[in-house]
Design a protein that fits this description.
The protein is mostly beta strands and 661 residues long. The chain is built from two helices and 43 strands. It starts with a strand and ends in a 19-residue tail after the last helix. The relative contact order is 0.10.
Length: 661
């Protein structure tokens, strides 16, 4: 019976992130004084990118401009900045001014409209209050809604928190909140629909909700595929404080502006407390899917008629035992018809980790448990995410320094593929090397995986990231630069601990191994003298973790005996080495040096004539080098002595043999 060597638990292969651009990041813009950050990144419809920025434009450079304003950067497919119109900053890589003037203008929401254009909803703020304004911009810098932005909110009231969604009919919808003054001050959440030229389609905005406890900053808006929208918001109702008081709600508004549900808005969870920050996406079938925290992270799918399709309690995604630690859920649809849910799980130390779980539009859970996207000890601040074309989820986040620490905040990136395998180290990968104060990450619209380059690394899922960086200063004062990085994510093949049979010289073997992140076409190396005739990878399931590896091996009769490492290399360049994975055992028949059928003095004489000789010398006899070390020495003599007098056909290695461990 073949001896068995138990594979020890190997440290998992470290997933790898490849920096495609300059190691320190590609400098997009610097030198202009003042602060700036990218607030949204959209596709231009031609392979390029439109970056919406908040920028103070530097009083020294532009004295006619006050406060913070909205800028726009147009990048080509090669990430080089393009000229955008002929106005202020049109040829400046830091961006052109698109919404500015007196006071402060801050972009709050943006979305792609028709190819080559985008919509921006912003707050126009000064001492007189805050107003919601809208403007459409194309890649030539033209303002599509007129020379001046469209004033959406009532100027008599303080306006807050605009959100945008396309209506699927060539137009768009915008929701916002107005704060009503007076002793009984309250907020009202409003919704308006616009046609493709920016003209209101409803005589007056639809009132969604009104009250003194309206948390409009948590409002979300998604289309219903019929010209209307689902609106979600959070509010407190003192009469329901026994159940937590705060209740995110959902309402569908028809294309004509009227509520679609006779009973009014629905609570995301029929009974019980729900946190204030739900996430909402359209389900592609006229309904909506909400992600929220309520005794854990839950998802619920609502039909167009308001029916809860996943039961009263919804779909539980997180570990119920850690329910109190979960917060800040976010949803991202993927290219395969599923959704990625992420959330933060707070640690007792004050840090946090990002958890990821994928689920299907039918409520299926292909992963057995959530996957850790990060496991750092630092608090997680701003976080952004998006699905890549191959179905991988990319995440970028800001890590805040621990309280009282002198270290700066840092950015990190991670990717988790659709089968639940993390592609960067447990703490995430740094998008840039070297010192810097990096903040405000934004993910650019993803391109398909690139073909293999000179380094042979091709087909990797890639995420392109923009961020603000304070490492450089302007001659005119403090300045924030903008940087870019494109990160490719490689696989991390791993194997489960399992019993592995020894290999004997001159034999063949078939192995069935199990692990994960193994790709079809991977190469397998067990060292000299072992030929891998076939290596077949089979996924345990199309959407979940786990792979089987079937190997067909042939061991040459002269394969050097001893322990062997197993090296795996996936086609994408991700690899792993498993030390002392197996062992090649000596074929005992090779101790019968003269082939007489018996180990005797004649064999000893053959060995003695070559003793001390090394490969290449005239008196070196390969047959006498029993252990194939390249030298006839005491190890070979010990092997022969341990079997002296034995019949060659019945030789079994003695327990004292160095090759019988």
């Amino acid at each position: 019976m073949a001896a068995i060597l138990w594979l020890q638990a190997q440290p998992p292969a470290v997933a790898d992130a490849v920096l495609r651009l300059e190691p320190q990041g590609r400098l997009l813009c610097s030198g202009r004084p003042g602060g700036r950050a990218v607030r949204a990144a959209l596709s231009d419809g031609s392979g390029g990118h439109l970056l919406v920025t908040s920028d103070d434009f530097g009083a020294e450079a532009f004295p006619q401009i006050e406060g913070w304003d909205v800028g726009l950067i147009h990048l080509g497919a090669d990430l080089d900045p393009l000229v955008l119109g002929d106005g202020v900053g049109a040829s400046d890589p830091c961006g052109a001014l698109v919404l500015g003037g007196r006071g402060t203008q801050r972009a709050v929401a943006a979305l792609p409209w028709v190819p080559g254009t985008l919509l921006i909803a912003a707050l126009d703020q000064d001492q007189g209050g805050s107003r919601v304004i809208l403007q459409g911009i194309d890649t030539d810098g033209r303002r599509l809604l007129g020379p001046q932005p469209l004033l959406l909110s009532d100027p008599a009231f303080e306006a807050l928190s605009p959100v945008l969604a396309l209506d699927g009919r060539g137009g768009f919808l915008c929701a916002w909140t107005e704060r009503l003054p007076g002793p009984d001050a309250s907020d009202r959440l409003l919704l308006q629909r616009f046609d493709g030229r920016g003209r209101p389609l409803w005589e007056a905005p639809t009132l969604i909700a009104r009250g003194p406890y309206l948390f409009s900053s948590f409002a979300t808006l998604v289309p219903d595929d019929e010209g209307g929208a689902f609106v979600s918001w959070a509010e407190a109702r003192p009469t329901e404080e026994t159940q937590g008081g705060y209740h995110p709600r959902l309402l569908r508004i028809e294309g004509g502006g009227l509520p679609a549900w006779e009973g009014g808005a629905l609570r995301l969870l029929a009974e019980g407390y729900v946190d204030l920050d739900p996430s909402l996406v359209a389900d592609g079938f006229g309904g909506a899917i909400a992600l929220f925290t309520a005794g854990g992270v839950r998802a619920q799918r609502f039909s167009s008629t308001g029916a809860r399709l996943w039961g009263e309690a919804g779909l539980l995604l997180s570990d119920a035992a850690l329910a109190a630690r979960a917060s800040r859920p976010a949803l991202s649809p993927d290219s395969e018809g599923g959704l990625f849910a992420t959330w933060i799980e707070e640690e007792d130390s004050g840090g946090g980790r990002i958890l990821v779980r994928r689920f299907g539009i039918d409520g299926a859970l292909p992963w057995p448990a959530p996957v850790a996207g990060s496991s750092g000890s630092r608090p997680i601040a701003r976080r952004v995410q998006g699905a890549l074309p191959d179905g991988t989820l990319a995440i970028a986040w800001e890590e805040a320094p621990p309280a009282g620490a002198s270290t700066a905040q840092e950015l990190r990136v991670q990717a988790v593929d659709r089968r639940g395998r993390a592609k960067a180290p447990p703490n995430g990968a740094l998008p840039a090397l070297g010192e810097g104060v990096r903040s405000d990450p934004v993910l650019l619209a993803a391109d398909p995986p690139q073909a293999a380059g000179p380094g042979g690394i091709g087909g990797l899922p890639e995420a392109t990231l923009a961020w603000s960086d304070a490492r450089a200063a302007s001659l005119l004062g403090p300045s924030a630069s903008l940087y870019l990085q494109r990160v490719g994510f490689r696989s991390a093949p791993r194997l489960d601990p399992a019993p592995i049979p020894f290999l004997k010289e001159g034999s063949s073997a078939a192995w069935s191994l199990h692990g994960d992140d193994l790709q079809p076409g991977l190469s397998v190396d067990l060292g000299p003298g072992i030929a891998v005739r076939e290596a077949t990878v089979r996924a345990d399931s199309p959407g979940g973790p786990g792979d089987s590896l079937l190997l067909s091996l042939e061991v040459e009769g002269t394969a050097p005996p001893g322990r062997r490492d197993l090296r795996l290399l996936n086609p994408d360049g991700g690899g792993a080495t498993f030390a002392a994975f197996t062992e090649v055992r000596l074929d005992p028949r090779r101790i019968d040096l003269d082939g007489s059928g018996r180990v005797d003095g004649y064999d000893l004489a053959v060995l003695a004539r070559s003793f001390g000789r090394v490969r290449g010398e005239a008196r070196y006899a390969p047959a006498a080098d029993i252990d194939l070390s390249g030298q006839v020495d005491g190890a070979d003599l010990a092997l022969l002595a341990s079997h002296f007098g034995a019949q060659a056909g019945g030789i079994a290695l003695a327990a004292s043999s160095p090759f019988a461990r």
